[in-house]
Model the fold of this input.
Amino acid sequence: MRYLFADSSAFPLSHNFLETLAVGIDTAVALLEVDEALDRSRRTIEEANTTALTELADIDRYAERAAWAFGEREGLSNVTARVVADLAGLAARELERARANVRSWREATVRRAEQCMSPAEQLRPFDRFLARYELPMTTWGLRWRAGHGDEPVQAQAYAVMQRGLSATLAVDIPKKHLWAEPVRVGDLEKRVCIRLVGRNVFGREAMRDEQLDRYFVSRVTHTTEREAFILSKRAKESSPGLRVSMREGVDQRVLVVRIDENEVPAGEPVVLDGVDAVMLKRLWTRIQETILDLVFCRAHLVSAALHGKPLAESESPAAVAAILVHSLAPLARQVDKHGRSSDELQLKRDLGNGRREELFVAKKDLVARYAGLPPHAREIFAALGLEEPRRSRPAASRPSASRPRSDEAYPTSDVYPATRPPAQPVSSLPPAPPAYDLPAPSIPPRRPNLRVVA
Done:
């Protein structure tokens, strides 16, 4: 659906950015709260260790005194000496029990504190955000493979975002989706036939027609670096087949190689051209048209990285929150710049038939989402410019019928170039981060108010 700025100039995204902004702020707040919880956990662990060491030192001092006191037995009768020995043993056992209790308390305290320090807990808010929303200018990728035997079909979506951020998410494939099972080539494109070297009836190598209609698509890779698929002779069993490469980096030659049941090449790749290449390009187009909507079936975060390093190991949740806010900030400021009110952020949605829907959210409502944070945490949100006074300007004139200049319609920062970005369907896909587990709770977004303008 087509979105516009409030002054009716073209908007660079095809989804409701105001909703994304609101949920993004909530996510950043949640990440900052996780960061505060991590600090508390670290202090708790440090205090537990310090307290335990102090208690154990006290117990050791009392043990030394008890050993000295009960060790003086000269001049005692046999009966008294036995009583003293019994008391010494009892004291030693009680002191050892006290040591064990202190150690047990320390271990339990540290264990509880470390539960919220796990990578899964640290990234849970980011997990919830990516399962339903995306940052501006995110590029998505997809990998899909058929399962063998009783294994289910699996798919993963890959997101490459601004500022070096990337993520891998598991895909929950709907049961009625075409790609919930291996797909026969003939169900995608009829009468697909190419000429390849094979063995004739006499067992000799020769060029022959390879009918692909009865093959099954068993693997699909669609990233910015690579576009390829594998065709197998059987749907859910290991079997020989063909590996087809449509693009490797900038190399867009169509390459085909025969593979055995273990997907090991059984020969050299063959470059196809002419009618054979056209046939496979038509098949690849049909695969893209039917499978790439699985990117919208994201379930939960598998992994996230910053400049290739695992996010939970390299950055604190507060740093992730800052990246999130600064990724949203340029477009948020641009929306404000094109707005007709200093108190709201506004967008329009073209409904067709001469009707537009206006979407708006009050700045004070967005500010209220992070108002409860301490001052040092609120500084992150200054990049959004929601609390900055805006210079008054004359009422917006009636928009011209001419096409808006690119520097008016789009942000002009290093994140948003001054020229209109080329339309990128979901088929523009990223390099795959590492592969394959977290539940995916959801953040209930507060949807912006709507008013319809005839």
